[in-house]
């Protein structure tokens, strides 16, 4: 560790079971390395750089994940259908497709889509839900709870899906390519918006030609 890093570590004080604490936001850490990595959030330092496109990252791991965009590497695969993925989280989410109806309670939840049954209700506003998870997720609007936190910048979210979308800001992943112009987008919603614009433009051009 450099002399500069040692001086930086010495600026943090011990706290309980976690030895190091950030003197800016008081977040505690058990290891020096985690502390220094966290400090980059405040300083804006991004010491890891992609040698292909020059994009910089706070974490070395994020840089390696990003580089798979250039290399096409997909080290994670589904052992049921063989589909491959650049990130482990994407593979885990995909595998739920194969197990969705393997248990009776999953089928019961699915049937509520057709019956309209909503047995779970929010005790704060009375809104009803078909699934307990949906109700618990909704209640975070009232409580302000944000249990899903980005380990790169610390921003927190009420839903894991929003965290997944946010992480792409750091990794540079753009998994939704437009089949018209080839531009890759980070969110499916942005892709749909792009396709809608092309459809409007195509309709207008057809109208003028007539």
Automatic annotation (TrEMBL):
<protein>
    <submittedName>
        <fullName>Zinc finger protein 3-like</fullName>
    </submittedName>
</protein>
<keyword id="KW-0479">Metal-binding</keyword>
<dbReference type="GO" id="GO:0000981">
    <property type="term" value="F:DNA-binding transcription factor activity, RNA polymerase II-specific"/>
</dbReference>
<dbReference type="GO" id="GO:0000977">
    <property type="term" value="F:RNA polymerase II transcription regulatory region sequence-specific DNA binding"/>
</dbReference>
<dbReference type="InterPro" id="IPR013087">
    <property type="entry name" value="Znf_C2H2_type"/>
</dbReference>
<keyword id="KW-0862">Zinc</keyword>
<dbReference type="InterPro" id="IPR050717">
    <property type="entry name" value="C2H2-ZF_Transcription_Reg"/>
</dbReference>
<feature type="domain" description="C2H2-type">
    <location>
        <begin position="48"/>
        <end position="75"/>
    </location>
</feature>
<comment type="similarity">
    <text>Belongs to the krueppel C2H2-type zinc-finger protein family.</text>
</comment>
<dbReference type="GO" id="GO:0008270">
    <property type="term" value="F:zinc ion binding"/>
</dbReference>
<keyword id="KW-0863">Zinc-finger</keyword>
<dbReference type="GO" id="GO:0005634">
    <property type="term" value="C:nucleus"/>
</dbReference>
<feature type="domain" description="C2H2-type">
    <location>
        <begin position="20"/>
        <end position="47"/>
    </location>
</feature>
<feature type="domain" description="C2H2-type">
    <location>
        <begin position="148"/>
        <end position="175"/>
    </location>
</feature>
<feature type="domain" description="C2H2-type">
    <location>
        <begin position="120"/>
        <end position="147"/>
    </location>
</feature>
<dbReference type="InterPro" id="IPR036236">
    <property type="entry name" value="Znf_C2H2_sf"/>
</dbReference>
<keyword id="KW-0539">Nucleus</keyword>
<feature type="domain" description="C2H2-type">
    <location>
        <begin position="76"/>
        <end position="119"/>
    </location>
</feature>
<keyword id="KW-0677">Repeat</keyword>
<dbReference type="Pfam" id="PF00096">
    <property type="entry name" value="zf-C2H2"/>
</dbReference>
């Amino acid at each position: 560790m450099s002399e500069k890093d040692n001086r930086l570590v010495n600026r943090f004080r011990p706290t309980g079971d976690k030895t190091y604490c950030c003197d800016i936001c008081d977040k505690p850490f058990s290891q020096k390395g985690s502390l220094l990595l966290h400090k980059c959030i405040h300083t804006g330092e991004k010491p890891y750089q992609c040698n292909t496109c020059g994009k910089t990252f706070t974490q070395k791991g994020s840089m390696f994940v990003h580089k798979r965009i250039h290399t096409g590497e997909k080290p994670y695969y589904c052992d049921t259908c063989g589909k491959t993925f650049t990130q482990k989280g994407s593979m885990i989410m995909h595998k739920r497709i194969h197990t969705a109806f393997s248990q009776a309670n999953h089928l019961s939840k699915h049937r509520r889509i057709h019956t309209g049954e909503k047995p779970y209700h929010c005790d704060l506003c009375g809104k009803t839900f078909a699934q307990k998870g949906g109700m618990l997720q909704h209640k975070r609007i009232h409580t302000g709870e944000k249990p899903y936190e980005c380990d790169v910048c610390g921003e927190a979210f009420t839903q894991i899906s929003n965290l997944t979308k946010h992480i792409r800001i750091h990794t540079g992943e753009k998994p939704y390519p437009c089949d018209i112009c080839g531009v890759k987008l980070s969110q499916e919603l942005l892709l749909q918006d792009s396709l809608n614009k092309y459809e409007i433009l195509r309709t207008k051009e057809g109208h003028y030609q007539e």
